[in-house]
Amino acid sequence: MSDAWRDLDDRQDDDWRRWQMDELGQPQRAQQERERKRREAIRQQAFQRNAEIEALREKVREEARQEGYAAGQAEGYQAGYDLGLAEGRETGEQELKRQAQKTLAPLAPLAQHFSEALSRLDQDIADDLVELALTTGRQLAGEALDAHPEQILDIVRELLHADPALSGRPRLWLHPADLSLVKAHLGNEFDAANWQLQPDDTISRGGCRVTSPSGELDATWERRWATITAMVRQRKPGDTRANGDRDGDAALREEGSDNG
Q1: Residue 242, pLDDT score
Q2: Basic and acidic residues composition bias: which ranges (predicted)?
Q3: How much is the pLDDT for 54?
Q4: Beta partners for 215?
C-alpha cells in the first residue's frame, strides 16, 4: 500500500468513533450545567453583597468604638484613668447607638407608611365584605319571600295586636296580591278589630303600612331592610355611609293625621 493510502486510512481512523446513546442527552446536560453555573453565580453575588454589608456594619461599629475610646481617653487623662476608662466606654456605646439610629432613621417613615397602608387595606376589605353580605342577604331574603309569600301573615298579625293599639279605625295598606292572602286567612280578625284593608300597588310584596289618626306604622319591605342595613353599618367604626340610614329603625312616625 502506498504512503498516500496509508495516511488516508490513519486520518479516517482518527475521525471515526463509535456512537454512544448518552450523546443525545448532552445538550440537556449542558443546559443544566449552564443553569447550575448561573445559580451559583447569583448565590456568590448575594453572598458577596451580604459580606460587604456586614463589613460596612463592622466598620461603623469600629469607628464608633474608636471615637468613643478617643473621647474617653482624653477625658480620662483629666479626671483620672479609672473614670476616663468608664466614660470612654459609655461614650463609645452612645456613639454606637447614634450611628445605628442615623443608619436606621430613613427606614422609619417607610415602615410607618407600610403599616398605615396595611391598616387601610384591612378596613377596605372589611367594608367590602359587609356590603357584599348585605347585598347577598337582600337577594336571599327576596327569594325566600317569593317562595313563601305567606310570611306577610305574621307581619300583619303582629301589627294587628300591637301595643298600644292605634286609635280610630286603622287602615292596613298592602300589595293587592298580599291583600287577597290576608283576607283569606285573617279577614275575620281584622273585621273584629274594626280595621280596614286597603290595596296599594306601590307597596312591594311582603310589606305593609298602617295609618290611623294617631300615627303610622311603616312595615314596608324597604323600611325593614333599611333598618337592618343601618344597624349593620353602625357597627363599623368610621363608616359614614350609615348616616343616611340612621333613622331606619324609626318605623313608628307620629303624624297626627290619617294619610289614608
Answers
A1: 41
A2: 236-260
A3: 78
A4: 212
